[in-house]
Amino acid sequence: MKKLIIANWKMELSHDQACSWLESDLPDVQKTLSETPHSLVICPSYTVIPYAISLYPDNLWGAQDCGFKERGPYTGDVSVLSLNDLSLAYCLVGHSERRRFHGETDKRVAQKVELLLKHTITPVVCIGETAEQKNQRSEVLKKQLSALLPLYAQYQAQPVIAYEPVWSIGTGIIPSSDELKAAVIVIKELCDPLKPLILYGGSVEEKTVQEFSSLVDGFLIGSASLDPGRLKKIIISC
Ligand code: PGA
Prior knowledge:
alpha/beta; 8-stranded parallel beta barrel; 42% helix; globular
């Protein structure tokens, strides 16, 4: 079945490193991808995106975040208007690193989702519980999603939700299949009657993908997506 694979490069590569990755490794990754039904979205740093698009206009590109207003005195923010000018297809929103290190609230996430939907850029909304919240997973997911659901109804858009347990990101620890199944059920129930596309993220590697592929519609990949060899293995295993 066709999967949506999203590579989140975070702030791991310098501009030059990311550009050389794209120049030397993306053709090979694309060749592997072309032998599968899957789609690959790469989310590099903002500075890389225009060059990436000029090199590979047919690839799918995404941003890692966006501003919560369309324009104005918001130093450091990048507007959805600029993402739209670049014809970006996707934008991550509410990643736990944004929530943790930049104080991003559910309200702020909802403001970004609304702007993205308005400009027909697909928000990939990241949600998930921390280790301490493991016993309240349903409540946490509900709180993170509740302000967003009316927006999807209003814009008649399909939610794309990345379930990323915070305790799994960058730790090598992954949920059991039963835990993931339970989270997927909660997300589907919360979104009903909308039919969300649900991705899994958190320490994704080849073997995670083999185990989880039948449970989700795709994967959000951090560190393994920086290694072209690992990324190709993940694509093949989906
Ligand atoms: P990881 O990151 O694959 O390195 O755990 C995932 C993410 O933060 O989206």
